Amino acid sequence: MSAGAPLFDAAMIQTILLTLKLAGITTVVLLLVGTPLAWVLARGRGFWNDVLGSLVSLPIVLPPTVLGFYLLIAMGPQSPLTAILGHKLSFTFTGLVVGSVVYSLPFVVNPIRNSFQAMGNRPWEVAATLRASPLDAFFTVALPLARPGILTGAIMGFAHTVGEFGVVLMIGGGIPGQTKVLSVTIFDYVETLQWGKAHILAGGMLAMSFAVILVMLLIERRLDGGRR
Amino acid sequence: MIAAAFRGRQGSFALDATFEAPGSGVTALFGPSGCGKTTVLRCIAGLARLPEGRLTVNGETWQEGRHFVPPHRRAVGYVFQEASLFPHLSVRSNLTFGLRRAKGDRRIREEEVVALLGIAPLFERPTTMLSGGERQRVAIGRALLSQPQLLLMDEPLSALDRFSKDDILPYLERLHAALSIPVLYVSHDIAEVERLADTLVLMEAGRVRAAGPIAAMVSDPALPLIHMPQPAAVIDGHVVSTDARYGLSEVAVAGGRLIVPGDLGPPGARQRLRIPANDVSLGRNPPQDTTILNALPARIVGVEPAAGHQMTVRLALGPDGTGAALLARISRLSWDRLALEPGQIVVARLKAVALAEPPAVADAGGLRQP
């Protein structure tokens, strides 16, 4: 530890804020994309539904570097996506959001999907016989009943995005203020032997992760208890 | 008027059901478990779709060929076996869920339904704190307030214990009396059906065995109802007079008048009577010195063998034998000793005449108003 240098410097604050911003935006996008997707997966039947479900769950088993590699190619200068958008997404904040959404998708979709499945067909049928159109029933019956799953999904998505490393490194590099998030920063600190700063960030992450899981458990217990 | 025809397979189950139900009163879909009653009801609500289906309700075609009205555009109220209240909504919000979405004029008003079903005291409680019978009452009210042209009830009592059943049956009867919309009622409990239904659709293994007015169906020798262990006749009549001194009412039925315990309401009030065959005995002469109040002339229409050396005698009330159908369960020995035969005029003695209520309720005596 070099004496005199402050433990909290501007770069560190910037990294933390960037990470929170990334995780926040990603979580919102994930809920907007993931909830309808979870609904389709929960209600759907047949082979293609299983194919879709497998695709969504792929990031759970795929090494982040593999996912990052393909995302890098998809967002790189040569890709059709870049041609359509007119500029490349790799090594930008937007690119990072897209990558994080893909990477954290199963952690949001699966709990919501389970919630939709657990409520069964009956509330849906009751709503229909009470003149609620499918869209109406989705917002007034299915979504409120899936609230525990949506909450779990949101927390998981947020925490998972905060913690991602491999994908971020592959498609974001480490541009300070743009793509240099917490996990990458910790790696940098360790590599440059700034153990003290690494300790602060790593310890903070540890505490936050523990708090997230604890809060989630408490919320689940609360919602379960309220239903009985 | 409801005209329905559904044909097709649902998994391994084959349904081929065609029937018509009148545009008023209660029509019961009756049959053993797994005979396809619920599937028919789901098809009518549009919750299930069989490709070969045809359905017309009050002149409006809901399904024919490729034309299929989705469930939320059909003016049906559906009461499921389990109340299925929305757990995230209050009792009141559950009740008005359909009302808020109903199209057209609201003939069925909230205050009426709340009064009819006695729901008001439940408003303050969360849905999880209601008893089974209370939940089902809210569910029935919820279905009614969606302003249906047709009320579908899928064994609404079967998930309830006997206590809750007794709690809810009177409400269903009041509903029957107060409502002008037709009700399709699925049940496998004949006592329930005999108490509530006007028309009976008898189902067997995915097919409609027979359909018609319930009084004729329960005594039809070609149908299984009369061959059940404890058959009963169902007779509709109206109150002629009541005698408060003795706590009795006189009810006029086709072919005679019956004395029934209880004050059954003002003269003219419609009453459904259920007379178990076991409570009817036969004689050749009017009885003398007997405690039996009801002894009426009737003609023997036919006779069916029953288990245990007994016979079920089909009768028509009245000295000319043109009145309401009655059943008597007598021993084979009595039949031979009295030398009875079809066509004869006999005297039917009715040991007990009660309002059509299931035996369990009658035993408890709980529903017979003093």
Please provide a written account of the structure.
Chain A: Residues 16-218 form the ABC transmembrane type-1 domain. The complex is a heterodimer of chains A (228) and B (370). With 228 residues, chain A is mainly alpha-helical. Chain A has one domain: MetI-like fold (Orthogonal Bundle), CATH 1.10.3720.10. In chain A, 79% of the residues lie in helices and 0% in strands. Chain A is built from 11 helices and no strands. In chain A, helix 5 packs antiparallel against helix 9 and helix 6 (122-129) runs antiparallel to helix 7 (134-145). The radius of gyration of chain A is 20 Å and the shape is globular. Chain A starts with 9 loop residues before the first helix and ends with a helix. The mean pLDDT of chain A is 89. Chain B has 2 domains: 2-218, Rossmann fold; 270-368, OB fold (Dihydrolipoamide Acetyltransferase, E2P) (Beta Barrel). Helix content of chain B is 21%, strand content 36%. A 6-stranded mixed β-sheet of chain B has the order 7-8-9-3-10-11, sandwiched between helices. A 5-stranded antiparallel β-sheet of chain B has the order 2-1-4-5-6, covered by helices on one side. In chain B, strands 14-13-12-15-21 form a 5-stranded antiparallel β-sheet. In chain B, helix 3 packs antiparallel against helix 4 (132-145) and helix 4 (132-145) packs parallel to helix 5 (162-178). Mean pLDDT of chain B is 86; it is low at 358-370. The interface between A and B is medium-sized, with 20 and 27 residues.
